[in-house]
Amino acid sequence: FNGGTTQKSVVTRNIIRGNLWGITIQGTAKPNMGDLTSADTSDMGLNQIYDNSNTGQIYDLYNNTIDSIKAENNYWGTTILDSVEAHIFHKTDDPALGFVDYIPIKSLVLNLSAGMEGLVRASGRMGRNDTVTVLLRDTVAPYAIIDSTRGVIDSATYTGKFSFVNAPSGNYYIVVKHFNSIETWSKGGGEYLISNGLPNTYSFITAASQAYENNLVLTRTKYCMYTGDVNQDGVVNQVDQLAIYNDQTNFVTGVLLPDDLTGDSKVDLKDLLRCANNVTLFARVKSPLSP
Predict the structure, then answer these.
(1) How do residues 63-87 score in pLDDT, each as one tens digit?
(2) Is 127 exposed, middle or buried (0-12, 13-18, 19+ CB in 10 A)?
């Protein structure tokens, strides 16, 4: 891009890779390569710019102007910010040049709400923030895993932010895994998620129907994942119950114990009773793989 101040091209949805140079900006040209703050949805970035090199040095974007450039929501061949920075020549390399705003990197962002039955307190909050793994699965057999990530569910809001860098826009089953809860899939048919850097939202806590075959339990005011799958075999049964019984008998204490279903850092009768209840309910994974 070489020109004057009227050179304000919108650059979107291009694949620029394997070239001697990627993009070079000269003069006072100011192309827009992605601006998520703009109300105009035509400038969402969504470019793939990577592996453009010269004599062993990667030059995916060279801002040879004094102006700042918007280049948000693009994929640079990696999601490691230090590596992306190394592939862009701008103000951090030469103080006389303009800055390139390349964050956030293109990803599918999901604001997900979920709760774990055993952690819910009388106050309505959960007893702690907790980490879950979230999978995005194809909605047709064999329901392949397209992408996965880990993140934290907040104890007050029951919500966490999850970013998937490999998943394109599409229809997915959202699958939540927690270390002593039943793996839970989103409702039948899947959910259409858009990969444009802006948040998608999905909530399991608002209704049982948000999970595949209503596989949630109402806990105070939130629909939550069944607790008690201590060995993560997809079902709450006597094997889990025996493990909790043994730890209860031995007065086991500690942080993040699989047998501590209530999250109070000790294995006691409350954990045993909660597990026994879910054994009686035949709590198990329900999904297209195991309907």
Answers:
(1) 999 999 999 999 898 878 899 999 9
(2) middle
